[in-house]
Amino acid sequence: MHERVTFYIRYVDAKKMKAIVSYSLSLYEGNFYPGDWLSSETKMSEPQKFYLKWNDFQSNMVSSFKHLRDEKSFTDVTLACEGQTCKAHKMVLSACSPYFKSLLEENPSKHPIIILKDVPYGHLQAILEFMYAGEVNVSQEQLPAFLKTAERLKVKGLAEAPQSIKREG
Q1: Helix (H, G, I), strand (E, B) or coil at 123
Q2: pLDDT in tens, 103-115
Q3: What pTM value is reported for the model?
Q4: Is the Cα dihedral 119, 123, 124, 128 positive or negative?
């Protein structure tokens, strides 16, 4: 299959952004073949720096984190409540909750087990889904209690007033 991949490279010098350069590459059978400079305003006498951007970075990271969680790959923390456990990643917990970040920083351990009192297991599963995917479905009758649990765990995006709550029919 012959695909055309376009990379956008932004030229940057000491005075900040000088020009935008666009270059194309063709991908065929796993090999890259050079394309054409589509536009260029660079000066050859100045040292060049290039800004490279992965256009699908955010969606790829979300799907990668979900895959790592689903496969239980590289998990390094266990969360326990109501006699059940969930495995997770310290980095994800820390990025999504100052509560977990502080707890993990104050108690360094290779693979800690965190016991959560007064946290329903269903809420924990939904909070982890929210942390890994950025979204979760919660029933209307569970929403107030779920948000209180998220508030206690200081989950970013849920602990403060939610920006948008979609009703699913």
Answers
A1: helix
A2: 999 988 999 999 9
A3: 0.66
A4: negative
